[in-house]
Design a protein that fits this description.
Metallo-beta-lactamase, Chain A, alpha/beta, seven-stranded mixed β-sheet, 2 domains, elongated
């Protein structure tokens, strides 16, 4: 070999040795930095699977938790959980930690994103087991400690679980940094889904991971309300707020793109998603929620947030919701002659209740001049005899139930049927005969303030779990009831009400109807009967 060839060989040999040394040192450095955080046999997953997976070195999705995700981060000072699952004994969380070959006894902190039960109920048990500190947003901490509000913990979801108090150790306002040696969590205040909602931005060795909780529930393009924005359309008792939520999403959109986005409910994605999003996909995802919330906020501004949540309020000019008597909503029209009230619940107290609720609205007392009965149901008519005795008001009843009313109420009464009703106190009104759970019934279609209002009585129902279960029992409680109910739904299908006032305002929903909501409600009622 020539001298030139020998020199080239020696140079190449030295470069190879240097390269091998760099690789070895790099491997050693990786081992020293990440070995404590990386159990063997857990290669990084590219998508968020419903299993125990590593999404980054020392960062794990405990994907067997349901319905919400729980995340685990290893640090050299111990384990950190983001959320704690629905189970009060945290059994699934403990099993998944063991699957990783880790010890739950090394848990140092539980960072709660928000108060909802599927994210928080396991925290108290894990604290009692490990003495880990529980962190929460300040505005959610009171609810967590008190555990006295099903709405705060369960939103509108009806689940057969018991809620319990969670002892919060550290209340967070946003802007704090929680550090565990080399691992830092920046706390981001993200109200809107709940008042004290938080996101946590993990930063370690150049890696930035955002844990979003339910501010962003999943990573594929969401259908209406699936981002978590549904809650902004609910009454205040559920904790959502459209204006706050809108600012939260705008804040997230303005942040530099994190390396990984870890949402609160990745299992909602029909196709498992890669948490490494492009900037375009991340902003497009947020833009869906921003658009929804802008629409909700605009509608509340224009039409009012007309929640039937027990708080008396004016719905339209001349139409008021006077809260509830028991489970029944109390609705009232104001006419030049006096008040027209829908149904007569309340035993002997209806006149007094109406007067008191009227004063709560800052109004001068007015006499009750008419009652619009939706059915002969006892809960709807328990106060009828007394209110007629006190006021001598007219009473509108279904013609098919007239004899029943005459038998039950011997007091001399000025009865009217749907055939005699074309207007009431100056309001154009149409009485619609229907049949349902309480036999012959009436719905009322009223025109007020240039809007169409449907007062429907007990049919249809807002499709909650409990209401749907009652529909399932209808065939046993009333022969022919299913056929009658379906026929009534057909009658309603041709209507396009702007406001819907049901006998029982379940979950305090907004009286305003938008888009295809009314047809969706009717279809859900229909499907419940046909199953």
């Amino acid at each position: 070999m020539s001298n030139a060839g020998t020199n080239r060989f020696q140079i190449i040999k030295k470069l190879v040795l240097v390269g091998l040394t760099v690789i070895a040192l790099g491997g050693l450095l990786w081992f020293q930095v990440w070995a404590p955080f990386s159990p063997q046999h857990f290669p990084l997953a590219k998508v968020l699977l419903p299993d125990v997976i590593a999404v980054a070195p020392g960062v794990y999705l405990l994907g067997r938790s349901s319905p919400a995700a729980v995340y685990l981060v290893e640090t050299s000072e111990g384990l950190v959980l983001i959320d704690s699952g629905l189970e009060s004994d945290a059994s699934s969380v403990k099993q998944q930690v063991a699957t990783l070959g880790l010890k739950i006894e090394n848990l140092k902190a539980i960072l709660l994103t928000h108060v909802h039960a599927d994210h928080s109920l396991g925290a108290a048990h894990l604290k009692s087991l490990t003495h880990a500190k529980i962190y929460s947003g300040r505005a959610d901490a009171e609810k967590l400690r008190a555990a006295d509000s099903l709405e705060a913990f369960l939103s509108t979801f009806e689940m057969p679980i018991a809620i319990h108090a969670t002892p919060v150790d550290v209340e967070l306002n946003g802007g704090e940094v929680i550090a565990f040696a080399e691992t830092r969590f920046s706390v981001i205040a993200t109200p809107g889904h709940t008042p004290g909602g938080l996101c946590y931005l993990l930063e370690r060795d150049g890696l930035r991971v955002l844990f979003t909780g339910d501010v962003v529930q999943n990573l594929s393009r969401p259908s209406r309300g699936r981002m978590g924005t549904y809650i902004a359309s609910l009454p205040p008792m559920f904790g959502g707020n459209a204006t706050d939520y809108l600012e939260t999403l705008k804040q997230l959109r303005a942040m530099p793109l994190p390396d990984l986005i870890l949402p609160g409910h990745p299992q909602m994605d029909e196709i498992p998603q890669n948490p490494h999003l492009t900037d375009a996909k991340w902003k497009a995802l947020l833009d869906v929620g921003i658009s929804e919330l802008e629409q909700v906020a605009a509608r509340h501004e224009v039409d009012g947030a007309n929640f039937l949540d027990g708080t008396p309020r004016e719905l339209l000019k001349g139409l008021d919701y006077l809260g509830n008597i028991g489970s029944l909503g109390l609705y009232c029209l104001t006419t030049s002659e006096g008040l027209v009230v829908v149904d007569a619940p309340g035993e002997n107290s209806l006149v007094d209740v109406v007067s008191e609720r009227w004063r709560q609205l800052g109004r001068s007392p007015q006499p009750i001049v008419a009652i619009l009965m939706t059915s002969a149901a006892r809960e709807s008519s328990s106060g009828l005899a007394e209110v007629v005795r006190q006021t001598k008001c007219r009473v509108v009843v279904p013609k098919a139930a007239m004899n029943l009313f005459r038998q039950r109420f011997s007091e001399e009464t000025h009865w009217l049927t749907e055939e005699e009703l074309t207007s009431i106190g100056g309001f154009p009104i149409r009485a619609i005969p229907i049949a349902g759970p309480h036999g012959a019934s009436l719905a009322y279609l009223i025109r007020a303030d240039e809007k169409s209002i449907l007062i429907s009585g007990h049919i249809p129902v807002w499709p909650s779990i409990s209401a749907i279960e009652k529909l399932h029992r209808l065939p046993d409680s009333r022969p022919g009831g299913v056929t009658e109910y379906l026929q009534s739904l057909g009658t309603f299908s041709n209507l396009r009400p702007d406001l819907w006032l049901p006998a029982i305002p379940i979950q305090g929903r907004n009286a305003n109807l938008y888009d295809t909501e009314w047809q969706e409600i009717l279809e859900q009622n229909r499907q419940a009967l046909l199953r």
